């Protein structure tokens, strides 16, 4: 019984300590741990879960406060990390983080503030790498489930996107021939 109480006290202390860290600092620390391949799998997994939760609950307190260059670096770092990740479980966690970030990068009018995300999806879907195709399908699935549009209705569609193609068709069949002259 005393051992359980001790674990419970440590857990409460850890939670209280975590709660007292400023959101911006949490974001930087968690991101650093997620992309650090020398950290333990458990540490990276926990950091990924907490980072996604932070983006879900406190996005406006964290991401928009970063300078635009830092925002771009974070987005690029996440996309690069997911492509280079060898562990399937961690790749899925990175996809979860990227999906949450992409969801929050759609403004109230439906405009996509992260155009590189869509390009990344199509490049991953077209890659010969099975892992990259899996990343694209995971992100497509999460976008469909969240009902966040992939393409803004205000902007012209990406040359690789046709309104007739489903995400599955885009991955399996690749870009349509109708847009070859634009590529």
Automatic annotation (TrEMBL):
The record's GO CC annotations read: cytoplasm
Q: Where is this region: Disordered?
A: 149-183
Q: What is its main location?
A: cytoplasm
Source organism: Homarus americanus (American lobster)
* BP-aspect Gene Ontology terms: protein import into nucleus
Q: Give the record's keywords alphabetically.
A: Cytoplasm, Nucleus, Protein transport, Repeat, Transport
Ranges where the Importin N-terminal domain occurs = 14-84
Q: What is the lineage of its organism?
A: Eukaryota, Metazoa, Ecdysozoa, Arthropoda, Crustacea
Q: Where in the cell is it found?
A: Cytoplasm; Nucleus
**Protein name, per record:** Importin-5-like 2
Q: Which GO terms describe its molecular function?
A: small GTPase binding
Q: Carries keyword Cytoplasm? A: yes
By its UniProt entry, which Pfam families does this protein fall under? IBN_N, TPR_IPO5
């Amino acid at each position: 019984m005393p051992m359980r109480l001790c674990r419970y006290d440590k857990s409460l202390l850890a939670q209280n300590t975590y709660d007292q860290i400023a959101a911006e600092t949490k974001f930087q620390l968690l991101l650093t741990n997620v992309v650090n391949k020398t950290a333990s799998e458990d540490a990276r997994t926990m950091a990924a879960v907490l980072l996604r939760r932070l983006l879900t609950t406190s996005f406006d307190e964290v991401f928009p406060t970063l300078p635009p260059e830092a925002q771009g670096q974070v987005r690029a770092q996440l996309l690069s990390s997911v492509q280079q990740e060898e562990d399937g479980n961690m790749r899925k966690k990175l996809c979860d983080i990227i999906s949450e970030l992409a969801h929050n990068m759609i403004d109230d009018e439906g405009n996509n503030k992260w155009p590189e995300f869509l390009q990344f999806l199509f490049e991953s879907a077209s890659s010969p790498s099975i892992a990259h195709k899996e990343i694209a399908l995971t992100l497509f699935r999460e976008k469909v489930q969240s009902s966040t549009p992939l393409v803004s209705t205000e902007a012209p569609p990406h040359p690789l996107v046709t309104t007739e193609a489903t995400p599955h068709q885009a991955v399996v069949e690749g870009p349509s021939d109708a847009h070859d002259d634009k590529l």
